[in-house]
Design a protein that fits this description.
Layout: E1 2-7, H1 10-19, E2 27-32, H2 35-38, E3 42-43, H3 51-61, E4 65-68, H4 71-76, H5 78-84, E5 89-90, H6 94-101, H7 103-113, E6 120-123, H8 126-134, E7 141-145, E8 154-157, H9 160-171, E9 183-187, E10 193-200, E11 205-207, E12 212-213, E13 216-218, E14 222-225, E15 230-233, H10 240-260, E16 267-276, E17 279-286, H11 294-300, H12 306-313, E18 330-336, E19 362-366, E20 369-372, E21 375-378, E22 382-389, H13 393-405
Helix pairs in contact: 1-11, 6-7, 7-10, 8-9
Length: 422
């Protein structure tokens, strides 16, 4: 069968890497792809957000399955467009993707379905927000642009002054454009985070192994949020009873709530959770796999991914076997361009990747890379990620960081504590 993967980041590189291992697959095309993906699949220079272009490619390629990786084309309705043209698609519809594309909707869903989550307030008017702050005691708050902001629309404010400044950036300065036309204020939760991702066809749910993302740019979870600086799977301290609680009290009610709202969800449902003293609480929902969580999860997945994708796309996930996982942990470390998540240069020469001995236990997944002539260069903020399996978390960390040391580009920045915090 022919599989089209939409996207061009580290998540899509990991998905293509896993999909092409399936004996069911004859050919994989990725659009727009990246230089790393081009080494293992065909790539087409069609932007993920170019919906007509992706439809034309699916027709030209005679795609038997389309897997949509990023959130933007999902929220724009790519799945609906492809399904209406007769294609089998893994990924939620436009209305279902609003679980990520509209944080206010997601919070309302949690309230309706009694899914544990932080107390929240929604504003689209600065004066109303200012009145809210005037009557509130001093303390930390989380400010979120309600729409998509590439993982950068969240500010953890230590006090009212910082929170109001973040609100102004959204509502007045237009930092995130239409995505910041509404803001969601939330109480700040405390505890370790966990990423819980499940495959679903809207009826059946198959949870994947847990993972933990590290979003702040600096060690010790300091600095502004990013799209993700690294991930581990499984986290050190997430016992089976917590995973069962997440499935029963978060994932299943979410699917039920989406069905009740006539927004049946098919694809990867991602719940970012805080393990508080009162139990797991939802920080966010995503309508797709996380990046960089996808990388360690695909490294640990021993089963063929393609039958699961087909089962979900066909509404027949109940007939699929539960996936088998490598018990060894995986650590993924992201290397960024200098200045990220702020402004950063492009076109920095990258070398050292070809000198690494990659294989089933060690992979380099490209994200923001490009070609200039025959040279590999940086082309984005998060440039690449190194992912390794190990006998234990410390061994996996040592292998990932050891490989990353051999990759060179000017100003390379990465966190040194991925996996250390567990």
């Amino acid at each position: 069968m022919n599989v089209l993967v939409v996207g061009g980041g580290g998540r899509e590189h990991a998905l293509v890497w896993k999909i092409r291992q399936s004996p069911l697959v004859k050919r994989v095309v990725c659009a727009p792809g990246n230089p790393g993906i081009a080494e293992i699949a065909d790539v087409e220079p069609i932007a993920a957000e170019d919906l007509p272009g992706q439809l034309e490619l699916a027709r030209r390629f005679s795609a038997d399955l389309v897997v949509v990786g990023p959130e933007a084309p999902l929220c724009d309705g790519l799945t609906d467009l492809l399904v209406s043209a007769g294609f089998r698609v893994f990924g939620p519809s436009k209305t279902a993707a609003e679980i990520e594309g509209d944080k206010a909707f997601a919070r309302d869903l949690c309230r309706k379905e009694r899914i544990a989550s932080p107390q929240y307030w929604v504003f689209d008017d600065l004066r109303q927000a200012e009145s809210f702050f005037e009557g509130r005691e001093e303390g930390p708050l989380v400010v979120k642009a309600s729409g998509l902001a590439a993982g950068k629309g969240v500010t953890v404010a230590a006090n009212k002054k910082e929170a109001l400044a973040a609100v102004r950036e959204c509502l007045v300065d237009g930092r995130f454009g239409d995505s910041g036309a509404r803001v969601v204020l939330e109480e700040k939760l405390e505890g370790p985070e966990v990423s819980s991702i499940a495959l679903t066809d809207g009826k059946t749910l198959i949870p994947l192994e847990p993972a933990r993302d590290h979003k702040p740019v600096f060690d010790g979870d300091e600095g502004p949020n990013t799209g993700g600086m690294g991930a581990i799977s499984p986290p050190r301290s997430v016992p089976p009873k917590i995973l069962e609680q997440i499935e029963q009290s978060v994932l299943l009610p979410s699917i039920h709530g989406m069905n009740s709202a006539s927004r049946s969800f098919t694809g990867f449902l991602y719940a970012g959770l805080m393990l508080t003293a009162q139990g797991p609480k939802v920080l966010e929902f995503n309508c797709r796999m996380g990046d960089p969580e996808t990388q360690p999860l695909m490294m640990r997945l021993k089963s063929d991914l393609v039958p699961l994708l087909l089962g979900a796309a066909d509404g027949d996930l109940a007939s699929c076997d539960a996936p088998e996982w490598d018990p060894r942990p995986a650590v993924c470390v992201v290397a960024c361009a200098p200045g990220y998540p702020g402004s950063y240069p492009k076109g920095l020469h990258i070398d050292g990747i070809d000198e690494l001995e990659t294989g089933p236990d060690l992979q380099v997944f490209h994200a923001g890379t490009g070609r200039r002539g025959g040279d590999l260069v940086t082309a984005g903020g998060r440039v690449l990620s190194v992912c390794a399996l190990g006998t234990d978390l410390e061994d996996a960390r040592a292998r990932a960081y050891g490989a990353l040391e051999g990759i060179r580009f000017e100003g390379k920045h990465f966190r040194t504590d991925i996996g250390y915090l567990g």
